[in-house]
Amino acid sequence: MSEQPSDVPSQQPEGEKPQPAQPALEMGAAWLRGDGESHDVVMSSRVRLARNLAGRPFATKATRRDRVETMQVCRDCVMNAALAEKMIWVDIHGSPALERQLLVERHLISKNHGKGRGANPNEDPRGVAISVPDERLAIMVNEEDHLRLQAIRSGLALGDAWNDIDAIDDKIEAKLTYAFSSKFGYLTACPTNVGTGLRMSVMLHLPGLRLTGEIEKVKRAATDMALAVRGFYGEGSEPVGDLFQISNQATLGKSEAQVLHELERQIVPRVVEYERLSRRELLAKRRVGLDDQIWRAWGLLVCARLLTTEEAMGALSLVRLGVSMGLLRSAGPGAEGPTMRVINQLMLLVQPAHLQRAVGRELDQEQRRAARATLVRTKLTRPRIA
Amino acid sequence: MNRKCDHCDREATVHEVTVRNGVKIERHLCEECAHASGISIQPQKPIDELIKHFVVAQGLTPVVPPAAQPARANACPTCKTTFAEFKQHGLLGCADCYRAFEGQLLPLLERAHEGGQTHVGKLPKRAMSEVGEEAVREAAARVAEEREQRVRMIRAELDQAVKDERYEMAAKLRDQLRKIELRESQAMQTDAANEGGAA
Ligand SMILES: [Zn+2]
Ligand SMILES: [Zn+2]
Questions:
Q1: Is residue A152 a part of any domain in this protein?
Q2: Boundary (domain end) residue, out of A277, A299, A319
Q3: A196 and A175 fall within a common domain
Q4: Same domain, A215 and A363
Q5: β-pairing verdict for A198-205 and A137-141
Q6: Which residues in chain A have Cβ-Cβ distances shorter than 8 Å to B150?
Q7: What is the span of the domain harbouring residue A301?
């Protein structure tokens, strides 16, 4: 996204440029880089902490005045604590629906935090602080808990993400007193988060397991280990693009270090190994069929004139598989074929709000399908500069 | 392309997949029908549902009309949330609710957290300064015990990794052990410094 705006198919006359966007949205999210440990399978690692301020009611019992105060206290703290080189703050209740959706698509706020139809003076005051340009850090204020701190990294890097957020948490706690009990730990609005308030999750790309029909086994095993399995956009979202999030559920009686160890050293490496094994098996036993599926997906992306999100995500998933296996080296204008980074970016850019932001105006469904096809084709067939 | 709601003609926007005993059950609902059947898009829904079902199945609290005496007795003194209210949306009203509903919450917490009942993990400095010496000692002891267990576990994994000739993993585990030890010695130095300052 850092190459904007020249690479965006503009569907409007020159001179009618869209309003300058909020800074974060024009920048690249660091977690899309497509690097880091096991990046062929692990797209990103995310760590989130739930925190509340002592002596203030939780969301369900907060009056409007409580909420306004909580927001001011939290905003002042996070914006003045030098948490990152540069932070921006977005008032969610004052943002139009498209902006909210954009933040949701970028995994910077939850669906719940972004709900609502647009700027409305009666909406609950709430917001988010984001580190820019890397977007590695996002702090939601007045979500289900007063504070939701999130750190996100590319590849399997839960340890690094934990270190990031642990330090941020210390800086905030130096200024604010958290609701805490020595027995139950950090007190949260929902008892399912009480204790460490910690949610560690990895976004896994598992096309090999889907193609070999093993994906249900993995999901079942994860569920048996008391892990949650969700789609790209979390709760209730369909698993598009063979992307799955796996995260811990228990937060009481288990230390942060224990959860980290279980996920990063025990569980995720096993799933990664399982996925790689499936890929090797496909290569050894179904090479022609695999090549065919990957190249058809490439063909769809560079030729189609209309693309739905689901179609685009399905094809991008196969192309990502092809790139990681070195099967698409002769595709596209470059000598090396498309990069993982471009594919990762496209998985985000084809989402409805991103697409409309890229084009610079609101589009209906039909227009979106056309714009999506144009955007994908341009990105994949235009010679790379860098 | 788009799926219709299981209950009406509108487009389904809420999709729920539940896996029970290896059987996948899917529900596709429009927002209104989802709302009517009590599904709302909330983080950690599986667990929230578990709690709801669990609370209902165990009959932990009889549903009493809000005006009745027992309900009032069962309200949080600070925010006036009742346990019945909590059951409705799964959210507590304030930090004191944990104390007010401790007895009722305990079985539920155990169930939601794989048997976990007490906090083991990070201790915030500022908040800990207000909980009393006894509680600080107990919490610190739990943390130390957990760390020892974890070190034992990682050592065993390290031995296994070496045996299996998984050297990359072995190196990572060794690195992890070194970091734990380093942190321990740092913490001891800080404690010593603090005690020196207080004396
Ligand atoms: Zn319906
Ligand atoms: Zn309360």
A1: yes
A2: A277
A3: yes
A4: no
A5: unpaired
A6: 255, 257-258, 261
A7: 287-381
User: Contact B98/A181, CB-based, under 8 Å?
Assistant: yes
Q: Which of B15, B147, B180 sits opposite A238 (nearest CB)?
A: B15
In a domain, A4, yes or no: no
Q: How far is the CA of A123 from the centre of ligand 2 (A)?
A: 24
Residue of B nearest to A237 (CA): B15
Question: Rounded mean pLDDT of chain B?
Answer: 74
In the predicted structure, residue B80 carries a pLDDT above the cut 80: yes
Tokens representing residue A233 in the block = 């956009």
Q: What is the ipTM of this complex?
A: 0.84
Q: How far is the CA of B37 from the centre of ligand 1 (A)?
A: 10
Pair of tokens at residue B51: 């709690």
Residue at which a domain ends, from A277, A312, A328: A277
A326, burial (CB in 10 Å: exposed 0-12, middle 13-18, buried 19+): exposed
Select from B19, B124, B173 the Cβ nearest to the Cβ of A223: B19
Establish, for the pair of chains A and B, how many residue pairs have beta carbons separated by less than 8 Å.
200
Q: How confident is the model at residue B50 (pLDDT cuts 50, 70, 90)?
A: very low
For residue A195, list chain B residues with Cβ-Cβ distance below 8 A.
113, 116, 119-121
Q: What residues does each domain of chain B span?
A: 14-58, 74-112, 114-199
> Encoding tokens for residue B25?
């059950």
What is the Å distance from ligand 2's center to B103 Cα?
14
Locate A22 and state its tokens: 């909020």
Q: Give residue-wise pLDDT tens across range A45-67.
A: 999 999 999 999 999 999 999 99
Distance of CA A125 to the CA centre of its chain: 24
Using only C-alpha atoms, chain B has a radius of gyration, in whole angstroms, of: 24
Whether residues A252 and A294 share a domain: the answer is no
- B31 CA to centre of ligand 1 in angstroms: 7
Kindly report the pTM of this predicted structure: 0.80
CA A332-A335-A339 angle, to 5 degrees, is 65
Amino acid at site B24: K
- Total structural domains in chain A? 2
Three-state secondary-structure class, residue A150? strand
Taking each helix axis from N to C end, the angle separating B45-58 and B102-112, rounded to the nearest 10 degrees, works out to: 130
How far is residue A276's CA from residue A40's CA, in Å, rounded to a whole number? Answer: 9
Give yes or no for a contact between A378 and A332, defined as CB atoms under 8 angstroms apart: no
- Closest-CA distance, A386 to chain B, in angstroms, reads 33
Which residues in chain A have their CB less than 8 angstroms from residue B89's CB?
60
Please enumerate in sequence order all residues whose Cβ is within 8 A of that of B30, keeping only pairs 6 or more positions apart, or say none. Answer: B5, B7, B8, B10, B11, B12, B13, B14
Q: How far is B46 from chain A, CA to nearest CA, in Å?
A: 8
The verdict on A96 and A157 lying in the same domain is yes
